[in-house]
Amino acid sequence: MAWSPARARVVCRIPGTFSLAHLEENVAAATLQLTDDQVAKLTATAHTTVAVDNQA
Which InterPro entries did the record assign (predicted)? Predict the structure, then answer.
């Protein structure tokens, strides 16, 4: 949740949550201020392709 606003100036967060605990986590994430290095690492991770074996 903190990564999106670090990348764009206008962000509309629409967290889909079904529990109070998840809502509280999402609200807390909205207050985080990420460093440029953290944003770069998260961006690199977001652009990584992960292979998943659904045959298991």
Answer: NAD(P)_OxRdtase_dom_sf
pTM of the model: 0.45
At 48, the pLDDT band (50, 70, 90 cuts) reads confident
Length of the chain (residues): 56
CA distances from 13 to 3, 33, 38, 56 (A): 11, 16, 20, 34
- CA 32 to chain CA mean position, Å: 11
CA distance linking residue 6 with residue 51, whole number of Å:
27
CB–CB of 4/11 below 8 Å? Answer: yes
Give the Cα separation of 16 and 14 in Å (integer): 6
> What letter does residue 36 receive in the DSSP assignment?
H
